[in-house]
Amino acid sequence: MKLTKEFYERDSLLVAEELLGKILVHETNGEVVGGKIVETEAYRGAIDKAAHSYNNKRTLRTEVMFGEAGRAYVYFIYGMYNCMNIVCEKVGNPQAVLIRALEPVEGMEFMAKNRFNKSYESLSKRESINLSNGPGKLCKALAIDRTLNGENLLDNRLYLVEGDKINKEDIIATKRVGIDYAEEAKDFLWRFYIKDNTYVSKK
DNA sequence: AGTATGATGGACT
DNA sequence: GTCCATCATACTA
Fold this sequence. Notes:
This protein is α+β, with helices and mostly antiparallel strands. 18% of the residues lie in helices and 28% in strands. Strand 1 (23-28) and strand 2 form a beta hairpin.
């Protein structure tokens, strides 16, 4: 069952935590690829120095975050990678959740081709873990790029469905990654991951 | 285990 | 011109 707009239309902290265990699916030229979300980060908008939308900064890039919940915010970073977020909260409140890592569930051949240009069977152990254990890696694996920025996750191209129920005691809350510039916000425990999951990007 | 470094280009000022 | 919500590789030990 697909997640509803009501699910997304809440504080990004809640959404980030509850997204753990859900399945992210991309359908693209006849292929279906999907993975279980095992790591997320909340970006809480106007009050969050780490967020692109800090201080309600509204630019062409951040515009999607100001719109309706349940859209994809995909941005290009470090000249090479894409990162996918899910827009949260009501219109005008620019929060989002970054998807940081997936456990492959469906379309492993497609992922292996995208990431390493070889068959899934021929991957080393290291490579199979590296398919989707980071925000840039999972976008490459699932063929998610900026053309999907603004995509409605309630439609049938890129969407999320129910998955495993994760127990509260299996959820770790810790500091976000790669935001050293964010002053006090860099220490907020706004990253969530599933305890002991192999595909988490960073303990 | 850890630490360092280059790749590479768009967004923003 | 500067800054990146990253990753792969190449070291050191």
